[in-house]
Amino acid sequence: MRVLVVEDEQLLADAVATGLRREAMAVDVVYDGAAALERIGVNDYDVVVLDRDLPLVHGDDVCRKVVELGLPTRVLMLTAAGDVSDRVEGLEIGADDYLPKPFAFSELIARVRALGRRTSVPLPPVLERAGIKLDPNRREVFRDGREIQLAPKEFAVLEVLMRSEGAVVSAEQLLEKAWDENTDPFTNVVRVTVMTLRRKLGEPPVIVTVPGSGYRI
User: How many CB atoms sit inside 10 A of residue 116's CB?
Assistant: First the structure.
């Protein structure tokens, strides 16, 4: 899942991004509304975690732009204002969910995951294919009943492949969904991660390389 965190309190923004990355999400961070509009125009995001009171361009205007562009991106709006009228106003602007500050990080994670599921074709909460069971919420992976411990990026790559339901996923698509914008697009990190993932999943191999195209399960 690719997430953009837009929050002018840099310590909070960085803390949220770090926590989301630990949940195997690819996260970009900006600290004002103008930068948010720039990123949204360049990258495809599943979810934007958007502070409402932003410098340069207000969070309301960022949200309106997402709606105006017709993007499948879901918006989780954050604000220190917790009145019902504020929440209603935010939702009427086009936000998909609303979370007042301060918030429990576990709730933020749950809401981001719930919104992420709404950006794609509905799938069961536990993904199953080729003897593999992947639970995105519990971050658990089993193959033929055996639990497999994966690093966050390995889990993210496997989740993208599982969600593709047998379709080929290119290295570029994996890079976009599982890594943030600071990753060198010419790196071999995708190939190395897939190799490690294959080894951990064991025999027989379930990740197939399609020459010149990408990978599939």
Answer: 19
- H or E, element range at 46: none
**Interatomic CA distance for residues 199 and 20, integer angstroms:** 26
Residue 170 and residue 214 in contact, taking contact as beta carbons nearer than 8 Å = yes
Report how many helices (DSSP H) and strands (DSSP E) the chain contains, helices first: 8, 11
DSSP state, 205? P
Q: Alpha helices, DSSP H only, in the chain?
A: 10-22, 33-42, 59-68, 84-93, 105-117, 152-163, 171-178, 189-201
Task: State the amino acid at position 210 in one-letter form.
Answer: V
For residue range 132-172, what is the model confidence (pLDDT) as tens digits?
999 987 889 999 989 999 998 999 999 999 988 889 999 98
Question: Which tokens belong to 212?
Answer: 């010149």
- Cα within 13 Å of Cα(212), Cβ side: 0
**10 Å Cβ neighbour count for 183?**
14
Q: Is the dihedral of CA 161, 210, 148, 150 positive or negative?
A: negative
Structure tokens at 9: 């309190």
Task: Measure the CA–CA gap between 48 and 130, rounded to whole angstroms.
Answer: 32
Say whether pTM exceeds 0.85: no
Beta-bridged to residue 76, according to DSSP, are 49, 97
Distance separating alpha carbons of residues 118 and 74, to the nearest angstrom: 8
Burial of 187 (0-12, 13-18, 19+ CB in 10 A): exposed
